[in-house]
UniProtKB/TrEMBL annotation:
Its EC number(s): 2.1.1.63
Cofactor(s) listed: Zn(2+)
Family according to the record: Belongs to the MGMT family.
Coiled-coil ranges (or none): none
Protein name as annotated: Methylated-DNA--protein-cysteine methyltransferase
Species in which this protein is naturally found: Amblyomma maculatum (Gulf Coast tick)
UniProt function note: Involved in the cellular defense against the biological effects of O6-methylguanine (O6-MeG) and O4-methylthymine (O4-MeT) in DNA. Repairs the methylated nucleobase in DNA by stoichiometrically transferring the methyl group to a cysteine residue in the enzyme. This is a suicide reaction: the enzyme is irreversibly inactivated.
Keyword DNA-binding: yes
Domain of life, source organism: Eukaryota
Lineage: Eukaryota, Metazoa, Ecdysozoa, Arthropoda, Chelicerata
Location in the cell: Nucleus
InterPro entries referenced in this protein's UniProt entry, alphabetically: MethylDNA_cys_MeTrfase_AS, MethylDNA_cys_MeTrfase_DNA-bd, MethylDNA_cys_MeTrfase_DNAb, MGMT_N_sf, WH-like_DNA-bd_sf
Keyword check for rRNA-binding: no
Alphabetically ordered keywords of this record: DNA damage, DNA repair, DNA-binding, Metal-binding, Methyltransferase, Nucleus, Phosphoprotein, Transferase, Zinc
């Protein structure tokens, strides 16, 4: 099968990784990552986390000479460190193909970058607070849209964005809310059914 040149930096390759939250699908070009997300068959009904599972490469679509693999290797190392001790953040993100994933001038790009830079493990932010951090306090709905289209699950930590009342909100369009709850618990934030009890447990960003 001939590889498609779907990026100006070269052909892309698709990989599957193991992880404590199930298999992860990764797309990369020689310049960096294009996407990272759980495989499509994971939802709240099938989610079965296993903290003992190590992050490893399971498969790849094409054999390559290492160019597309190097960014994925950095992703494997980052995720392995995250699942072992998330509070070691901030740590440098794996190589990302910024021209493709984070187009300049896009509000979504500013949201994703601000979220990655400011909202570290053990903290959460509301949609409105994140909009304010992006210098557009009226854009909470646009922030919600950016979360829905987040191309890099975990690396861009949309699971740390909650509702203004302190409740969790949805994750992956409501299909993986249990994943969001698990990731926050992994980072030291225990979810309570009462929104007020939940918010008191949260360390807000400055």
């Amino acid at each position: 099968m001939k590889r498609k040149r779907s990026c100006p930096y070269g052909p892309t390759n698709d990989y599957v990784l193991s992880s404590p939250i199930g298999r992860l699908a990764v797309k990369s070009c020689p310049h960096g990552l294009h996407s990272l997300h759980q495989v499509d068959d994971i939802d709240d009904a099938t989610f079965s986390p296993d903290p003992s599972v190590e992050v490893k490469l399971l498969s790849q679509e094409f054999e390559d000479n290492g160019y597309t693999y190097r960014p994925v290797l950095s992703c494997v190392l980052w995720l392995d460190a995250y699942f072992k001790d998330p509070c070691q953040e901030p740590r440098p993100l794996p190589s990302i193909c910024g021209a493709t994933v984070f187009p300049r001038g896009s509000f979504k790009t500013s949201v994703w970058q601000k979220l990655s830079e400011v909202v570290t493990a053990g903290t959460v932010v509301s949609y409105g607070e994140l909009a304010t951090l992006c210098n557009n306090p009226q854009a909470s709905q646009a922030v919600g849209s950016a979360m829905r289209y987040n191309p890099l699950q975990i690396l861009v930590p949309c699971h740390r964005v909650i509702r203004q009342d302190g409740s969790l909100g949805h994750y992956c369009a409501g299909k993986r809310d249990k994943v969001k709850q698990w990731l926050l618990a992994h980072e030291g934030i225990a979810f309570k059914k009462s929104a007020k009890a939940w918010k008191r447990k949260v360390r807000q960003i400055p």
